[in-house]
Structures are given as C-alpha cells and as structure tokens.
Design a protein that fits this description.
The protein folds into 3 domains: about 10-145 and about 215-275 and about 505-565, FAD/NAD(P)-binding domain, CATH 3.50.50.60; about 160-215, no CATH class; about 325-500, Flavocytochrome C3, Chain A, domain 1. By secondary structure, it is α+β, with helices and mostly antiparallel strands. Strands 1, 2, 10, 11, 12, 13, 20 and 21 form an 8-stranded mixed sheet that branches. Strands 14, 15, 16, 17, 18 and 19 form a 6-stranded antiparallel sheet that branches. It has helices spanning about 20-30, 65, 75-85, 90-110, 175-180, 185-200, 215-230, 280-285, 305-310, 370-385, 395-400, 415-420, 430-435, 440-455, 470-475, 550-565, and strands at about 10-15, 35-40, 55-60, 115-120, 140, 145, 165, 170, 210, 230-235, 235-245, 250-255, 260-270, 325-335, 340-345, 355, 390-395, 425, 490-505, 515, 525-530. The two termini are about 30 Å apart.
C-alpha cells in the first residue's frame, strides 16, 4: 500500500498521532524494535513544523560531536541550562534529556537514515553565561537527496516559499554567502551557477528541488526511515477521541473523510501533534494576552494531542517560565492569495543596517538577540513605548544585501510588496515615520545615534555585536561591527513586526519514558506524548538553536524504546 494510505480497519501495536519530527522518531524506533506501527497525520503532508524549520538539533555530548573533535561535557550543558532556565520546569526530566541525548542520536545514526553533524561554530543564545558552548553542541542534518523517496516525495511538506529561490530551490547555510557575493566574486558566481544548473535539471522531472537542507532534510530523512522500516502511514486522518478500557488507553477513533474508524493499539498511543499554536482556547488560557494569535507553525498544530491527553487523564503542569517559543513575525498575502506569516529568525534583524523601533521612534532592545528574547522585549516595552507592532527598518543598501522579511536579497521588483502594504518605503526618515505613524523626532534622533555608533563599532544603547551570538547572526564582512552599518542610502524601508510563536512550550506532563502522567504523577496506562505535546524540558526558556528538535528526537526515541519493552 502506498505511503499515506495505510489501512485503518485493523489493529496495530502502536498508533502515533502526528507526523512531525517527534512522531516520526517514535514511529521509526518502535518499528525498528519490531512493532507494527500506524502513523497518522490529519494534514495531507508529512513533516510537521520540522519540515519548515532551520533543522538545528541541540544535543550536548553527542557522538557526532565527539567524532569531529568537539569537546562538550554534560556538566557544562547542565550548568548552562540551570543558568538560563533556573528553577522553572521539571529538573528530573531535563536530566533525562541530557543523559540520554547522545544515546538517542547514536541510535538514529545506526538504525535509520537520520544523519546529523556538528556545527563547528554556532553559539548558544546566551553565550556569556556559564557552561555556554560556541560550537559542537548544535547538530544539523546532512543534506538529503529527496529523489530517494521516489513517488512519495510530493507528500513531504515543502519549506516556506520565502526561504527558497526560483520556486523551490533550497539553499544550504554555507552557500548563502556565495549568493550574496554572486555579482562580486567569480568563485561565488561559479558556485551559484553550478547550484542553479543542478536545480534546473531536477525541475525537469520534479515538482521542486531535490537537494534538501535544514529542517526539510531532517524531515526527509525521517520520512525515508518510515519507508525503509515499513511504518504504515495514513494522511488526512484526524483522531477524534481515545479508546479507553479498564483505565488503559487501547486505541483511537480515527476520522477519515466522513468515516470514523475505531483502531486498536495493543501497546499504546503516542501524542505528537505539534502543540496548540492554532487553538484559540488553549492560547487564551496558557499564553499572555499580548501574544495575539499569530504563529509560524503549520495550521494543523491546533491542540489535538494536548486536548486528547487531558481527556485521557493527563494534565498540564505549572511552573514554566513561559508557554511558547517566541519569534517576531510579519504578515502578508502570497501571490496565490494564501495568507502567510514570515518568521524573522536570523535572516534580517541581526544584520548591519537593520533597526527595530517602537511607536515612539526609538529602539527598545538589541536586535541581534535571539528571536525569543526579542519578542519578550516587545512584551516588556509595549506599555511604555508601543512595540506591538514595532517596525524593522533599513536603508536601500541593507535591503539589497540582506532582504527584509519576505523580500529576498537583491530583489529587483519591489512593487508587489509595496502595493500590498507589506513593505513601506519613503525617501526620507521623516516621511517614513509619518507613513508608519511613529514619532518623527524620535526616529531621526535614534537613527543619528545608531549611525554614529555604527562608525565606531560600539552600540552605546544596547551593546549590539557584543557577544558571539550577535556576531554569528551579523555579517562577518562588515567592519568594525558585524551587526551595525549606518542607514544613509535612501529610500528607507520598513515592515511591521508582531509577536508570533515557533511552537508551544506548555504541554502534557510526562515521565522519563514519555508516559503521560495524571495529576498525581501516575502514568496513564498506554498513553505517551513527545514533541510539543509534552511539556517542554526547557520550560518555556530558549537556551539555544534546536532546543525543540533536540528533545523531540530524544523523547521520540525514549517513547519508541519503552513501547517495545526495551526502554
């Protein structure tokens, strides 16, 4: 039977709800251990949030890092997490993650198509705190040739169009500088020509480029593992309820079209539906009012797993530092008429010549801080400065070099973005302030100070460029500060930024094997959770890149092993 069309009229050992990174990991591990697994997703694509993510995996002390000569001790990682998270969340569960992460990564490397390699330099988000790492702790997936998926390739969720070129070409992280230098460096021009030529040849027979990188590569590698291990996959299948007998979860009621199927699971049901980013009621109960309702994750992440888990006896614990992982977003309408949300992670905010200002025309935070930290600053400053929304502004030179949100670098035709109002342009800073409805004197004074600081290389307001993470997200070719360049070349441009999320942190309480716990901390028989359906081991803090995918893989592994009796 073709992948995505599994039989829902028979029993299985395990039912996994949600085909993101955590759900796929639980499914492939359980299948490798000999169990008969049914993986369901209510959308028509495989990959979840992982497929549109940066694909980073935070996994201290991993085998790939050690083999690459990158030293990292669990004591350092433990010290760092304590410095960032403090006493929030479940310290015992966090310890489970730390001590089992290397084991999980090695298992996937030996038994699946997942291949992760350490990044030699990718700092933790608070690099000056004790125990922080500058490189090796963060892993990324090796590039993946999606042609190995065969006819199933179209079922893999595509990356966001704004992060591809020419209608479907993904760009690996090391190649981004070559694209920026394509008009200035013969070597870069040759590299880009080869990449584009390869892509065009692939498009002769494929719906998009097959050279997958970042989160799409991770999702593709997990999907290949599903195929190789014979996991039964059904798409367009939503769980309407859990089947419970004698206090044990023994299956799920599955809706496929207008039909409902009662599918039994001999070992258990795994909740991995991606959290509740698109569930208004749960957002209202668990997230701050200022957060609004904007999310950068797929629409299918609408709280199904958390809701099912609670009806089955599970609960959401208190004590998190926050309920979601934040990112500033801008909103627009694609040429297809589809409403889209662009997450401003690392492509623009931290680059030279970019500045975020409030309604008073003044900066309110360090633009080079992590996206999570940036949104928290928006929350804090809104009452006094008016930061929801705020505006990210730049001059013509910065727009050409780095792009601005959905506007890609070296975009020649800006009129579609200007006509729809996504991009605002003006010949002077005063005119820009008027069009944005922000304080003119404040903006002019702020840019003057920023420009003077850019010349000296010292941000006297917020210390931008002052640590390794800031410098990483900047432009190393820019001097003297890789994060700052004067705004002097008109016209000037701006996009509005709103609070958004990259996923929710509040979720079901679980034990070290991923079993859902009731209010008395007793496991609910037959019920498991992982990914964003389980309460985050980071407790709503965001210590570094990949702190959602790292635990997703580790607890997906632990769930799969425990279901097989080998946990």
């Amino acid at each position: 039977m073709a992948i995505g069309e599994a039989d829902v009229n028979r029993d299985y050992d395990v039912i996994v709800l949600g085909a993101g990174a955590a759900g796929m990991t639980a499914a492939v591990v359980a299948a490798h251990e000999g169990l008969d697994v049914l993986l369901l997703d209510k959308t028509d694509r495989i990959g979840g949030t992982a497929a549109i993510s940066g694909g980073m995996v935070w996994a201290p002390g991993s085998g790939p890092a050690k083999r690459a000569g990158k030293s990292d001790s669990l004591d350092d990682a433990r010290t760092y997490l304590q410095a960032v998270i403090g006493n929030h969340g479940n310290a015992t569960l966090r310890e489970t993650f730390l001590t089992r992460a290397a084991e999980a990564i090695d298992y996937l490397d030996r038994n699946t198509s997942v291949r992760l390699v350490p990044l030699s330099f990718y700092p933790d988000y608070y690099p000056d705190l004790p125990g922080a790492s500058r490189g090796g702790r963060v892993l990324e997936p090796l590039a993946f040739d999606a042609r190995t998926l065969g006819a199933a390739f179209p079922l893999l969720r595509a990356p966001l169009p704004e992060f591809t070129l020419f209608g479907g070409m993904m760009i690996a992280r090391p190649d981004i500088p070559h694209f920026r230098r394509v008009l200035r460096s013969p070597r870069s021009a040759l590299r880009v020509a080869r990449l584009v030529g390869r892509y065009l040849r692939q498009r002769l027979s494929l719906h998009r480029g097959a050279d997958l990188v970042l989160g799409n590569a991770l999702a593709g590698r997990l999907m290949k593992s599903l195929i190789d291990l014979g996991v039964s996959v059904r798409l367009g299948a939503a769980a309407g309820g859990l089947m419970i007998e004698d206090g044990r979860v023994c299956g799920a009621e599955i809706a496929v079209g207008s039909d409902t199927h009662a599918v039994r699971a001999r070992r258990g049901v795994v909740l991995a539906t991606g959290g509740f980013s698109h569930d208004a009621a749960l957002r209202g109960a668990l997230l701050p009012a200022k957060a609004g309702g904007k999310s950068a994750v797929p629409l299918g992440n609408s709280g199904d797993g958390v809701t099912l888990g609670r009806t089955g006896g599970g609960h959401i614990p208190e004590g998190n530092a926050g309920g979601a992982f934040w990112v500033p977003v801008s909103t627009f309408t694609r040429h297809t008429g589809e409403q889209a949300i662009y997450p401003h992670t690392v492509t623009d905010r931290g680059k030279p010549g970019m500045m975020a200002v409030a309604r008073d025309g003044r900066r309110f935070t360090n633009e080079s801080n992590s996206y999570h930290e940036f949104v928290q600053a928006m929350f804090r400053a809104d009452d006094t400065q008016g930061t929801i929304p705020c505006h990210l502004i730049c001059d013509a030179d910065a727009l050409w070099r780095y792009g601005l949100g959905a506007v890609k670098p070296m975009t020649l035709r800006l009129s579609p973005y200007l006509k729809c109002g996504y991009l605002v342009s003006a010949p002077t800073l005063s005119d820009l302030a008027e069009r944005l409805g922000i304080d003119t004197a404040g903006l002019v004074a702020t840019v003057a100070r920023y420009n003077a600081d850019s010349e000296t290389g010292v941000d006297t307001a917020f210390g931008r460029g002052g640590n390794d993470y800031h410098r990483y997200v900047g432009d190393p070719e820019n001097r003297p500060n890789p994060c700052m360049r004067p705004l002097v070349k008109p016209p000037y441009y701006a996009v509005a930024l709103y609070p958004g999320d990259l996923g929710t942190a509040s979720g079901l309480e679980v034990d070290g094997n991923g079993r859902v716990l009731d209010g008395a901390a007793v496991p609910v028989p037959g019920l498991y959770a992982c990914g964003n359906d389980m309460n985050s081991v980071m407790a709503g803090a965001y210590p570094g890149p990949g702190i959602t995918l790292g635990p997703a893989l580790v607890f997906g592994y632990l769930v799969g092993r425990h279901l097989s009796g080998r946990g």
